[in-house]
Amino acid sequence: MRVSVDVSAVPDRPAGAGRYTIDLVQALSRRDDVELVLVSRGGDGDRWAGLGDVVPAAPDHRPLRLAWEQVRLPRILRKLAPDVHHGPHYTMPEASKVPKVVTIHDLTFFDHPEWHERSKVPFFRRAIRVASRHADALVCVSRTTANRLREECSPAAPIAVIPHGVDHSRFTPAPPSPDADRLVLDGLGVRRPFVTFVGTIEPRKDVPSLVRAFDRIAAVHTDLTLVIAGGDGWGTDALDTAIAMARHRDRILRTGYVPDEAVPALLRSAAVVAYPSLEEGFGLPALEALACAAPLVSTTGSAMEEVAAGAALLVPPADVEALAGALDMAVRQDSGLAGRRERGLTVAARHTWEASAARHAEVYVAAVDLARRR
C-alpha cells in the first residue's frame, strides 16, 4: 500500500507528537506492505532520507504551511497518487479525494484553551471537528482521548485506539556501556541523586508545581537536585517565578533541550522521574521512564493513569503537597518500589513501535475500503 504521510509539522527539536511521527514513520518504513511517501518542509527533506520517497514541498512558517496544506497539498497528492494519506497532527487536506487518516492526540484545545497559544485554539478546534466528520479513519493515542473525542465531536469516522511504542533499543534499564550514562550526565552538569522532568516546558506540564514540591523535600534530602530537561515551549514565566521563589533554587538545574541520545541516561539515572502533567493525550516520556525501570511519579485523571497501569505513584494534578509526598516516598525507596519497577518493565514491553505501525497499517487498509464503499 502506498501511504503518504505529512511530516511537515515535525519541528527541528521534536517532542510529543513530533516524536510520535518520527518513530512511527521509521517503523512503517521497515514494513514490506507499506510504501511511504513523506511530504516534508522544503528545507527538511534530508531528515527523512532513506525512509521512503521524500517530497520537500511545505513552507517552513507555520501559518503558511497550514494554508499550503489546504491549497497545494491536494494537487501534490493527485500527482503522487497514494492509496491513503495520513495527517499525524490533527489536520488533513480537506479538498483531497485521497482516503484520509488523521491522528488526534488530545482534546485540550476544547477543554483547556488557556494551555495553548491563543492563535492555535480556533484553528485546531475546527481541524478536529473537520477530521471527525470527513476523515475515513481516526487514530487516537489513548482510550482517554478517544472517549473525549466521542463526547465532544460525535465523529462519523471509525476510531482506532493505537498507543505509542517505545524504542527498546535505547530505553533500557542498563546503559550501553559502563561509563555511558556518567559521560552524558557530566556533559549536562548533572550529578546524582536527582529528580528529573523531561519534556517541553508549557503550562499543561505543570512544572512549577514540581519545583514547589521539590522545594518542600529538599531540606530533608540535602544532596538531592531537580533537573528540568526540555526546551521552552511557551508560557514559561510561571516556571521562572517558581524557581526564583524556591528556597533551594541553587539545586535546580534547567538543561534546556537535550538531544535524543541523552534522554535514556537521564531517565534511568534518576532517583525519581516526575511527570506532573495536568493532562496528556498519552505521555510518552512516562512510558519511556518505565522502560528504563525508573521510579515514576505522575498524575491521576488522564491518559497518564492509563499508560502507567499501576506502575507509578499517582497524585491529583496540581496537588503540591501530594506530589511532594510521592517524591519523598520514591527517593526513600519505599517498600512498593521494586514491585512498581517490575510492573513498569512489563507494561513497557507491551508497547513497541512495530506493534503501533502494524495497527496503523490495518487502519490504512480499512480507510481505503471505507472510501471505496462510499
Share of helical residues: 40-55%
Assembly state: single chain
Assign the CATH superfamily of the largest domain. Answer: Glycogen Phosphorylase B
Order of helices and strands: EHEEHHEEHHEHEHEHEHEHEHEHEHHH
> How many strands?
13
Mean pLDDT, as a whole number?
A: 96
Q: Which overall shape is indicated by the principal axes computed on the Cα atoms?
A: globular
| Measured distance between first and last alpha carbons | 19 Å
In the predicted model, the low-confidence regions spanning at least 5 consecutive residues are none
Strand order of the largest sheet: 3-2-1-4-5-6-7
Report the major sheet: 7 strands, parallel
CATH architecture of the largest domain: 3-Layer(aba) Sandwich
- According to CATH, the fold-level topology of the largest domain is Rossmann fold
Please describe what this structure looks like.
The chain has 374 residues and is of the alpha/beta class. Helix 8 runs parallel beside helix 9 (237-245) and helix 8 (207-217) crosses helix 13. The model has no long low-confidence stretch (mean pLDDT 96). The radius of gyration is 21 Å and the shape is globular. The longest helix has 21 residues, at 353-373. Helix 11 (284-291) links the parallel strand 11 (272-274) and strand 12 (296-299). Helices cover 42% and strands 16% of the residues. It has 15 helices and 13 strands.
